[in-house]
Amino acid sequence: MASAAGAQPVPKTCKVILAETIAKKLLQEARETLASIQGPNAPRPTLAAFLANDDPAAVQYASWSKKTCEEK
Questions:
Q1: What is the DSSP letter of 43?
Q2: Is 6 left (phi over 0), alpha (psi -120 to 50) or beta?
Q3: Residues 6 or more apart from 4 whose CB is under 8 A from it?
């Protein structure tokens, strides 16, 4: 399978792994670990984070982390 002129074909051994696939497994592991060390009525864990600077990328990453923690 060749694409643009001069481009090398994509090897058939390539495998696409989506970040969502990895994240689902990690979140499930976190849920299972919390369930095994906490009782059913335990308070929810708290995430504390500190930004080292005001880099827009760092601020966005912190925002995404907060959103994910609140959802999960």
A1: P
A2: left
A3: none
Identity (one letter) of the amino acid at 50? F
Is the Cβ–Cβ distance between 63 and 55 less than 8 Å? no
CA distance 10 to 16: 12
Question: Residues 16, 20, 25, CA angle at the centre, nearest 5°?
Answer: 105
72: closest CA among 44, 50, 43, 52? Answer: 44
Per-residue pLDDT tens listing for the chain (72 residues): 545 566 787 777 888 889 999 989 998 998 898 888 887 788 877 888 889 888 999 999 999 988 988 887
Residues with Cβ within 8 Å of 47's Cβ and at least 6 positions away in sequence, in order, are 65, 66, 69
Assigned token pair, 36? 């095994």
